[in-house]
């Protein structure tokens, strides 16, 4: 009976992780269907088809991959922390690359079509999110993956890093919703209110993105889903702190 609660918690965690992956993958697939079927497909020639690369890359990079990068610390409980850090950094790097490709695509399309840049709320939020995401990745690289800061400074910055990761996920989902609405109003505004298939699909995509963000937020904020402390890793961390800072061997 005493083990039933932990077992239920693990089962709930596994179920929620599965739900998050279904939601995230469904969001990417629906974005591809929307841009591929309703908006004419993909290209890299300055046409509207090049613009279609933008939403697909942003949903794949700043939402799905970004969310999964955050989630690895919850999923891989028993893996060495350095391996999880490396995976976290690699997935974030892939998300960053995809996001940059998406930004280049939309600016290239605007230049070819002589459309002004950076005038809408969506573009302001998107650029802010990308810049902060780049800073977050660089700070994570310097503080945790290849640390150049002291152990005390890393321990102090860690809560900020965790908060910023979740905040950037919220910003990415919010910016995606703005982009969905903007694209619909630009392309099907006269028929949007008639529940056209494209409009319904885009609305469902928005709901999926919100649900993905909510499930990720729940998984990342519940204390029982945290990575359990590893005594060996804590001992190594304390030893490193003592050697580098000259401090007493106490856990930060």
Automatic annotation (TrEMBL):
SMART domains: B561. Keywords: Cytoplasmic vesicle, Electron transport, Heme, Iron, Membrane, Metal-binding, Translocase, Transmembrane, Transmembrane helix, Transport. It catalyses: monodehydro-L-ascorbate radical(out) + L-ascorbate(in) = monodehydro-L-ascorbate radical(in) + L-ascorbate(out); Fe(3+)(out) + L-ascorbate(in) = monodehydro-L-ascorbate radical(in) + Fe(2+)(out) + H(+). The chain crosses the membrane at residues 12-33, 53-74, 86-107, 127-146, 158-180, 200-220. It holds the Pfam family Cytochrom_B561. GO terms for molecular function: metal ion binding; transmembrane ascorbate ferrireductase activity. It is a multi-pass membrane protein. It is found in: Cytoplasmic vesicle, Secretory vesicle, Chromaffin granule membrane. Its cofactor is heme b. Residues 19-221 form the Cytochrome b561 domain. InterPro entries: CYB561/CYBRD1-like, Cyt_b561/ferric_Rdtase_TM. GO terms for cellular component: chromaffin granule membrane; lysosomal membrane. Transmembrane reductase that uses ascorbate as an electron donor in the cytoplasm and transfers electrons across membranes to reduce monodehydro-L-ascorbate radical in the lumen of secretory vesicles. It is therefore involved the regeneration and homeostasis within secretory vesicles of ascorbate which in turn provides reducing equivalents needed to support the activity of intravesicular enzymes. PANTHER family: CYTOCHROME B561-RELATED (PTHR10106), TRANSMEMBRANE ASCORBATE-DEPENDENT REDUCTASE CYB561 (PTHR10106:SF14). Homodimer. This is Transmembrane ascorbate-dependent reductase CYB561. The lineage of its organism: Eukaryota, Metazoa, Chordata, Craniata, Vertebrata.
């Amino acid at each position: 009976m005493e083990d039933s609660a932990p077992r239920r918690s693990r089962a709930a965690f596994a179920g929620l992780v599965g739900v998050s992956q279904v939601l995230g993958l469904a969001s990417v697939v629906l974005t591809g269907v929307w841009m591929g079927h309703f908006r004419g497909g993909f290209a890299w020639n300055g046409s509207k088809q090049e613009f279609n690369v933008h939403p697909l890359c942003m949903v794949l990079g700043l939402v799905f991959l970004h969310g999964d990068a955050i989630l690895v610390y919850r999923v891989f409980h028993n893996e060495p922390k350095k391996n999880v850090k490396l995976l976290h950094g690699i997935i974030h790097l892939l998300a960053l690359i995809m996001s940059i490709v998406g930004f280049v695509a939309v600016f290239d399309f605007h230049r070819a079509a002589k459309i002004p840049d950076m005038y809408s709320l969506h573009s302001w939020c998107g650029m802010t999110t990308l810049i902060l995401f780049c800073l977050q990745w660089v700070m994570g690289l310097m503080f945790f993956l290849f640390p150049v800061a002291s152990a005390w400074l890393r321990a102090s910055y860690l809560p900020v890093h965790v908060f910023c990761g979740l905040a950037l996920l919220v910003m990415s989902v919010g910016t995606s919703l703005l982009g969905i609405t903007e694209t619909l109003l630009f392309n099907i505004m006269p028929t949007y209110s008639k529940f056209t298939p494209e409009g319904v699909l885009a609305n469902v995509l928005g709901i999926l993105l919100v649900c993905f963000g909510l499930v990720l937020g729940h998984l990342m904020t519940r204390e029982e889903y945290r990575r359990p402390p590893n005594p060996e890793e804590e001992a190594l961390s304390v030893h490193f702190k003592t050697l580098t800072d000259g401090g007493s061997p106490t856990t930060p």
